[in-house]
Amino acid sequence: MTTPSARRRRSFLTAGRVAAAVASLLVLAGTGLASMTMHGLVDGLSTSDALGTDAPKSLGGDMNLLLIGLDSRKDQDGNQLPQEILNQLHAGDGTQGGYNTNTLILLHIPGNGGKVAAVSIPRDDNVAVSGIPGYTHAKIKEAYGLAKFYAEQDAAKQGVTDKAELEHLGREAGRRKTIETVRTFLNVPIDRFAEINLAGFYDLATVLGGVEVCLNHPVKDSYSGADFPAGHQTVNGSQALAFVRQRHGLGNGDLDRTHRQQAFIASAAHKLRSAGTFTDLGKLQDLVDAAKKDVVISARWDILSFAQQAQNLTGGNVQFTTLPIAGYQKVNGQDVNKVDVEQVRAAVRTAFGTAAPAPETPQVHASSTVDIPNTTGRTGLAAMVARALASYGFRTGELTTLGPAASSVVYGAGAKDDATSAASLLGGLPVSADTRVPEGHIRITLGTGFTLPAALGPHGADAPVGTTSSSAPSATSSSTGTPPAAGPQGGAVDGSGIPCVD
């Protein structure tokens, strides 16, 4: 990890900047310069251990790279950016934004050198989260900030008072939770990640001397500062940020904004290729220096090896898609996107050209007795869970109906291993010991809205499709395994040139 003093000198970039910065490093590696030169250029990039060393890995030389765009007006020590910078960014007085991940793009880079696929996750998708007090579902953009808040709260209780240290601990927790949430939602491994921030579009466009973009229609929006005619035009740093931040006045709001982000990345990459940047060491140095100052990447990332794998990322051979949503609704007064998880995963498999994973048969041979309080309000669900678990050797104990409660698995003496197995079978419920539970018994509380996983055979297939929290919406499970041909998420954005978007 970098030191607090080093982190004070670094802020973040947005998705366009990190893609371009990484692209510049890749092409530089292919120019024939000595490895020592390459190592000198990349030395000093900020790194994070949030991915962990035991994270699932892609197979066959493939790589999944998650770009995390953080909508924060603060530096890595939690200090507000200078007002003159905020003015250029049209980003208010620094109190807005919080720590939402308003950009989440997963790049799939095939090991065989094929076309790179990039999928954008709409920021308001309401998805399952774990390990966040009081939440079983949240907007996917909120996972970072929620985890950060509670991690800092816990650290403060342990006596940590240094602001920069708290900020660092919080951001590491936010990164871990975002990676975990995306990985679980999409059911794919994440091999590398890069975190970036609000000022990146401004910085990239400035370093490149402007970026050409294209709009299908003229727009004017006081919230983002966007004021553009239709057609092709070159945007400077401040205009670039307005271009990618606008959502008011667009037919599909955030989903259209996602296309703006995708188009900007494609246009910036086109500018990098066509402007001689990769053969101009001065320009390359400017990009790499900015990346050293602003980009946080996963630790132990071998950039030189990555350069050999990802040449298509710099050649325009990229296609962007936005993952489908199942509709809109309000949850606790907030607008959220309903998602059909299987439909989303099918869309990812289609984009990445991968097959559906083979179902796993858990090797569980239990003997404990399960007592199941049902708090969902759905008659017969406790019996359904008991029948599903019986096929793994669990004995059925007392089935009761109680008032609202959170889902949990608690166990008595001698039942720890079986409790862990039951929790895993039921979708990863929290597990704890409880001396009030009799020896050899497990109490499985079915929280309001609990869903029996489909993997548990016919009992799971017959279970209601929904969420695990009264505050989370139901999603319609109409997926046939094929992503929709059209929807509010719109079509693909071609990354080979300068795409025109709304």
From TrEMBL:
Positions of the Cell envelope-related transcriptional attenuator domain: 100-273
Compositional bias ranges of the Low complexity kind: 463-484
Family assignment from sequence similarity: Belongs to the LytR/CpsA/Psr (LCP) family.
Gene3D superfamilies registered for this protein in UniProt: 3.30.70.2390, LCP protein
Entry superkingdom: Bacteria
Protein name: LCP family protein
Any Pfam family matching the protein: LytR_C
Region (Disordered): 457-502
PANTHER family for the chain: POLYISOPRENYL-TEICHOIC ACID--PEPTIDOGLYCAN TEICHOIC ACID TRANSFERASE TAGU
Domain LytR/CpsA/Psr regulator C-terminal per the UniProt entry, residue ranges: 369-450
